[in-house]
Write a structure and sequence with these properties.
The protein is 20% helix and 28% strand. It contains five helices and eight strands. Strands 1, 2, 3, 4, 5, 6, 7 and 8 form an eight-stranded mixed beta sheet that branches. The radius of gyration is 17 Å and the shape is globular.
């Protein structure tokens, strides 16, 4: 019991714990996030890129997408720096889409947007919690993404500012692509 209490105090009861019960840089599954954000039901099977419920919006990003991914889901989500993240909504969304309007109203409604990132799909089902974010007003833009047939689909690009810049080791790990050694 003493060891358990010690581990809790040193790992979770510190400055990295956020007001939403999540701990910066810890790994979480979608199911964990539903539970920790106090969602009524576990919605991990239907929550892929993001979902907005109970004035929360967890966003899940796979930083380096696989080669077999559909063009319409090959979003250009990426860090611009340890404190800025460029993120795209699902395709077929415009600035007038209901979920986009909810994100645009973040500063008025207090919508909590939490960013979770994993490097590759082969890392499993858990994502690093890199922190809560605010979208930068005036930096959102309507753009397009191509589908597999080359047709343009509407999409919205947001620029997020992290409440806490991403810790350097995790930032470097996430943005670096794995280099295959051939020989």
């Amino acid at each position: 019991v003493a060891l358990g209490l010690y581990n809790y105090r040193t790992r979770y009861d510190n400055a990295l714990r956020q007001k939403n019960s999540l701990v910066l840089y810890e790994k979480y599954s979608r199911k964990d996030v539903c539970r920790l954000l106090n969602w009524e039901n576990n919605e991990d099977s239907t929550m892929y890129g993001y979902a907005i419920k109970y004035n929360t919006c967890p966003i899940f990003v796979t930083y380096h997408k696989g080669e077999d991914i559909a063009a319409s889901t090959d979003y250009d989500d990426r860090f611009l720096s340890p404190e800025l993240f460029s993120w795209m909504t699902r395709s077929k969304r415009t600035l007038n889409s209901n979920e986009v309007k909810k994100i645009l109203a973040q500063h008025e409604t207090g919508l909590g947007i939490s960013l979770f990132i994993k490097k590759h799909d082969d890392e499993g089902s858990e994502f690093y919690y890199v922190g809560d974010v605010d979208y930068l007003k005036g930096k959102e833009r309507q753009t397009t993404i191509k589908n597999d047939e080359g047709k343009d689909l509407p999409i919205v690009n947001f620029l997020f500012k992290l409440h806490h810049p991403c810790e350097n080791d995790l930032y470097t790990y996430l943005i670096e692509e794995n280099k295959q050694i051939k020989g």
